[in-house]
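Researcher: Here's a chain I'd like modeled. Treat it as a single chain, no partners, no ligands.
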Amino acid sequence: MRRQRVAAKVYYDGTCFRGFQRQPHGETVEDFLLRALMDEGIVDDPKEARWAHASRTDRGVSALGQVVAFTTDRDLALEIINRPMRINRRLLPKACMWAFSLVSPDFNPRRDALTRHYKYLAPYMGEDVQSMKRAAHVLSGTHDYSFLGVSDEQSIRSMSIEVNVRDGFIEVDVKGPGFYRGLIRACVMALLKVGRGELLIKELEYALRERKLIKGLGLAPPEGLILWNVTYKNVVFKVDRVTLLRVIRILTDKVYKFYTLGKVYDVMRRAFENSISSCT
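Model: Modeled as a single isolated chain. Structure tokens:
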């Protein structure tokens, strides 16, 4: 049997899962993807298929461009690329594989990644964006980030951070070779606190320079974080247009639903504020 390694770009709605990595409860993105591949006979055993992924995301974090890889029969690999709805009918609407590439037998989406790009979205509530931009410049570069209150065996990492405001939301784009758990959300929380005047830039610079822990910083909520893209050398993905059209329809329905729900909450909040005002 001829074997072929396949890399696939994966979309998933993080609110539908309890994180990415496989767990005994089986309600993670990885469990969901593997179950679909095994039910379709594309993967028999994850270990034998050398299943691998680019990044682990926490519960609530979504992905536009997660990358997974597995080895299967070559004919099956070609069928998946040409007829991806075979697998996506089991994944949609929670997730899908929307682009594919035939890769070398030793390809590892985690080890071979050049850059990981995360995007964080937060409602703009009057924060000082220029101060946030200056803070992003302070945090960019190669540093020991343990002062943010999250750490790893290797806390020295390299990253670039950009802050912009679009359509009423703060967008924070973070790019780097790799990140450890909680690092991006800690960086975003530091930026938001600077923007709200709760943390001074000189305090941030001092903590970075002296490696002094910023107490009580915390993490930004996971729901605002998206694994946007992962890049590789000499790996070209073939995009499936039919799958993307399906996902666009699904996301359009979700935008309408949650935009409406957000307005419902806002109207009720304002009603309670008016009630409080009438009591004084």
